Amino acid sequence: MTISIEKKELSELLEAVRSLYGYDFSDYAPSSIMRRITHFMRTRKIETLETLKVILLDNEVVFEEFVRELSVTVTEMFRDPSFYKYLREKVMKRLATYPVIKIWVAGCATGEEVYSIAILLQEAGLLSRSIIYATDINQRSIEIARQGIYALGQMKLHTQNYLHSGGENEFSEYYTAKYNSALINQSLKKNIIFSAHNLVTDRSFNEFQLISCRNVLIYFNQTLQTKVINLFYESLCPLGFLVLGNRETLLFSDRKDEMEVMNKKERVFMKRGKL
């Protein structure tokens, strides 16, 4: 099945979606969004973009599936262990100086990163005075994250990542095995707030000591990346940390001179300024 998408058709579709539903995908990287839309159409045997537009504007259930396709993120617990090792050894010590620690995991996907950070906080003795805001545009992903139920078969990889990040406990302490599922312990969930947030259209909602948004900006074009970086900058307290994915950078951002590079390899930055 061959699918051809013209730029004008794509723009018209995205504008129609924005007008009706309020989701703005117009500044997503063209190659990424065209690839995901094409995949969505093929799996549902939709031959033209015009047909897709009619279906999306008429069927909210299909539209929710469409949003999931455009925003799906593959992740795992303690992904990139060296990054979490840096958080464990350097960032946690700085966070410990705050009476209340506020963290924003933007684009939390299905929650593996959120629970990884919660484990770091617990092992540092900081979880009880922390609030983690976990947000995503994808409602289904948020629900999966909130439930904290993952395939038991994934735990071997998650355990290896955890140990490579410097973890010294038995990783099985953080979940309960039931049949073929692993249920994240309630003690890790109690300080996490899961909610929908659209980085494209929504504003800052708090001031944070740490913002993590890893492997999300790569799907945005430069205009939208700049907009989101400004949102994060405005949401950070002075000397607050911003962490990005290993293929993301502040190099082309107008905030680059207002952020100090703490670890270039792990993409950890700190907002300049005095407390």
| CATH H-level homologous superfamily name of the largest domain | Vaccinia Virus protein VP39
Largest sheet strand order:
6-2-1-7-8-10-9
Whole-number count of domains? 2
The radius of gyration over CA amounts to 20 Å
Give the helix proportion (percent range): 40-55%
The fraction of residues in strands falls at 15-25%
Q: What structural category do the secondary elements indicate?
A: alpha/beta
Mean pLDDT: 91
N-C termini distance = 59 Å
Count of helix runs: 10
Which CATH architecture of the largest domain would you pick? 3-Layer(aba) Sandwich
Q: Main β-sheet, in a few words?
A: 7 strands, mixed
Give an overview in words.
The chain is of the alpha/beta class. The protein folds into two domains: 7-71, no CATH class; 81-271, Rossmann fold, CATH 3.40.50. The chain has ten helices and ten strands. The strands form two sheets. It has a seven-stranded mixed sheet with strand order 6-2-1-7-8-10-9. The radius of gyration is 20 Å and the shape is globular. The termini are far apart. The mean pLDDT is 91.
